[in-house]
Specification:
alpha/beta, 27% helix, TIM Barrel
């Protein structure tokens, strides 16, 4: 995709909710609904969802619609797709504290209000069934095996539910038991509005753990064309949402001024906030037996002095790099992980972990043994899923994979090996 694919355990505490205004709407919810009124309409029906469009090969949960020299097509999303209200079967569960049989009003809102945040289906009843949040820490029991689980949290990248809406990402993350979400700032205007995102986060009681800055090819005009302003606005959004990490790509080769000051500028921004700027590993672009560098100073963060790095396991597949070696070489600089898989093709696949040939299990087990305390964001492509059930099955499998392997064996007392 012009060499780059579009990017796709503590329980969250009850969040403070904004005071409803006239009509039962919070300001952020009203703004979010207004931004999507044309796409979603005022009348919502419960028709079955159509299968996701197949628009060519893509990675990170988004479709490809434009070919450019050097790699697979770059993903684009139409406003209609980006803002589609998630459809659910009749009788689907409502968020906790929501009015039973109500019309989706936010908790604490008046009965019969229409103030649900963007994309929250109306007429919901019941409560969400939240899956257990991972393997419990085990004590060292003499004569038996035990595991130790690090403090790392597992987040769902909002890109992983494409072509469903941002609200669907929060809903699915809540239902499946993810610890939070990673917000992909994308062409969907809701993802660009920190107040609207905060409203969804509070409504579903799912925290935003990390923010992916809009530095993809398809998001070159999101917020602004100035790459430094993108990072400043990403920082402001992360601070507003309570996220701890911002994922950043290295500059494109044509962004020479930005690339020249990239390391110095990031260091300056680090002194202005407690938020981590984690630069992601990328890959060389390949096409027709040719390969060239698309990123400056380099696609491989091991060759730079970035204090914090995001390791993406689909990108190691494209670059032909050993994920284990890169994790080991990064050491304490590895602050964030994009959990996905790949089969070694020249395109960014973002498969469900375990379905490719990357060392996903070994990387997770190594992080567990090292006591990793960063965030692990599941960033997989589910755009070919035929329906919501199939999409959720993939995302549940990815979460189960993470929980299973994010555990280090603990040697019982008195045993020697």
């Amino acid at each position: 995709m012009s060499g780059e694919a579009v990017e796709g355990a503590a329980a969250p505490s009850r969040a403070r909710r904004a005071r409803p205004g006239p009509g039962g709407r919070t300001p952020a919810a009203a703004r979010a609904q207004g931004a999507t009124q044309e796409a979603a309409g005022r009348k919502r029906t419960r028709k079955p969802r159509a299968a996701a469009p197949e628009a060519g090969e893509a990675g990170e949960g988004l479709p490809d619609t434009a070919d450019e020299p050097g790699a697979a097509a770059q993903g684009l999303s139409s406003p209609a797709h980006a803002q589609t209200v998630p459809q659910t079967a009749a009788g689907a569960a409502a968020p906790p504290d929501g009015p039973a049989g109500g019309n989706g009003a936010p908790p604490d809102g008046p009965a019969g209000a229409t103030g649900a945040p963007y994309g929250v289906p109306e007429g919901r009843a019941g409560g969400l069934l939240v899956a257990p949040r991972g393997i419990l820490n085990a004590d060292r029991v003499p004569g038996s095996d035990a595991v130790r689980v690090p403090a790392a949290k597992v987040a769902l990248s909002t890109s992983s539910v494409y072509p469903e809406s941002l609200a669907a990402a929060f809903e699915i993350a809540r239902r499946l038991g993810y610890d939070g979400v990673e917000l992909m700032v994308f062409t969907d205007p809701i993802s660009q509005d920190a107040e609207a995102v905060r409203s969804l986060s509070e409504y579903y009681e799912v925290p935003v753990l990390s923010v992916h800055a809009p530095c993809l090819l398809v998001t070159q005009r999101v917020w602004t064309t100035d790459p430094w302003e993108k990072l400043r606005r990403s920082q402001a959004a992360a601070e507003r949402l309570g996220a701890s990490t911002i994922v950043v790509h290295p500059p494109f080769r044509w962004q020479r001024d930005y690339a020249r000051d990239f390391e110095v500028g990031l260091e300056r921004m680090r002194h202005e906030t407690d938020i981590t700027f984690a630069v992601e590993n990328m890959y060389p672009w390949r096409a027709r037996n040719r390969e060239w560098a698309a990123y400056l100073p380099d696609w491989d963060p091991r060759n730079q002095d970035y204090p914090q790095v995001t390791l993406d396991l689909s990108h190691t597949s494209v670059s032909g790099t050993s994920a284990i070696d890169m994790a080991a070489d990064l050491g304490d600089r590895l602050a964030h992980l994009h959990l996905a898989d790949g089969s070694g093709l020249a395109r960014d696949e973002h498969l469900v972990p375990g379905r490719g040939n990357q060392q996903c299990a070994e990387v997770l087990e190594g992080l567990a043994a090292a006591g990793f305390s960063g965030t692990i964001a599941v960033e997989v492509s589910t755009r070919k899923a035929a329906n919501r059930a199939e999409r959720e099955a993939d995302l549940a499998e990815a979460l189960a994979f993470a929980r299973l392997h994010l555990a280090a064996p603990v040697r019982p007392r008195g045993r020697r090996g």
